[in-house]
Amino acid sequence: MVPDDTTSTDDIDSADAASQAVGGTASNDFLxxxxxxxxxxxxxxxxxxxxxxxGSVLSFVPFATVLGGVIAGYLxxxxxxxxxxTGTVAGVVMTLPFAAIVFxxxxxxxxxxxxxxxxxxxxxxxxxxxxYTLGSxxxxxxxxxxxxxxx
Length: 151
Fold this sequence. Notes:
Blueprint: H1 9-22, H2 41-57, H3 64-76, H4 80-111, H5 116-150
Helix pairs in contact: 2-3, 2-4, 3-4, 3-5, 4-5
């Protein structure tokens, strides 16, 4: 906004401050106040871990991987890029228990004389499941960031 003769720069600054006090920022109402600063790496890792553990605990619920990402993205705040990172961390944390169990079973069954094709198929299944979980965590992180801006 270009000030004219009737508007002073003090009026413009007070209008920006008033719009920030109401609940939005002067330039963008999508973010809540204070969320336009990038999140720290510690916050990304911490909230990603919290979301990943929550998604793993709620694994009996449909779309728990998305829910874990939503929790992580909502708690972290920051920018959309931070939500992507937090959702990625949550997806990796949710993938680890599944991968550990499958690899343990493969190790045990490998000594039992299982054919090599079984191991190859199992690794393919683990890869597809890991991609699904990781992708769902990322989508959930962005969705959680969006919900944080709305509520």
